[in-house]
Write a structure and sequence with these properties.
With 219 residues, the protein is mainly α. Helices cover 72% and strands 2% of the residues.
């Protein structure tokens, strides 16, 4: 399944959440360090999780190109360890700020990469409860649906994304194509129906794009 780092890498700035980092000296010359707000702590944990995610995806790429089984196993373990660390950081971020839907979305991504699909869907659902039109969470959740064979839910997500964010819809269609390449031969009637549906949707998207790109007449 295609990794989609660029689709969701929304880095939160700790500074954007308020208090600066100024220092004040008392009569004895000591330095007072202002305590950080929950929002700042949440942002810090979230950003730490994103760093683990980046490392995990890098190890995934190394595993995919490794020529030896022992190297693939090594990189797979390192990737998994990084995703587990990311899960811990995202949970910490949500503990500080339970409205941080970006962290919930990324928690779902990490869970999905670890194969914990029910936990992933639960995290995506929570993110979407807070921000119903957050397209990256809709797309990621659809990939979790796809992984467990919930094909009707995957199709419904594509249609929703096509209305909300066609770039995200395109990413989901790529994931569908990759799933079909692996499962079409032994996926039975459901896989065949999905392949036909995907072909129809891609044809329709192509026509829609062509109409949109028709230059405006000058007369």
């Amino acid at each position: 399944m295609k990794t989609l780092l660029g689709a969701s890498l929304l880095v939160l700035s700790v500074a954007a959440f308020g208090a600066g980092s100024g220092m004040s000296s008392g009569g004895g010359g000591t330095v007072d360090t202002p305590s950080r707000s929950p929002e700042q702590l949440a942002a810090s944990s979230y950003n730490a999780g994103l760093k683990h995610k980046k490392r995990a995806l890098s190890y995934e790429e190394k595993s995919a190109t490794a020529s030896k089984d022992k190297d693939r196993a090594k990189y797979d373990k390192r990737s998994r360890d990084q995703f587990e660390d990311a899960v811990a950081d995202y949970k910490k971020a949500i503990g500080y700020d339970n409205r941080l839907y970006q962290a919930m979305n990324e928690l779902g991504f990490a869970y999905r990469k670890l194969g914990h699909y029910e936990d992933a869907v639960r995290a995506y659902n929570t993110a979407l409860f807070i921000k119903a039109d957050f397209a990256p969470a809709i797309e990621y959740r659809a990939e979790a649906y796809l992984a467990v064979g919930m094909l009707e839910e995957t199709k419904a997500a594509y249609l929703e994304l096509y209305r909300l964010d066609q770039a995200q819809a395109g990413l989901l269609m790529q994931a569908i194509d990759e799933w079909l390449a692996t499962n079409a031969a032994n996926g039975g009637d459901a896989a065949k129906a999905l392949a036909e549906w995907a072909a129809e949707r891609k044809a329709l998207a192509s026509v829609t794009q062509a109409i949109t790109e028709v230059p405006k007449r000058d007369w």
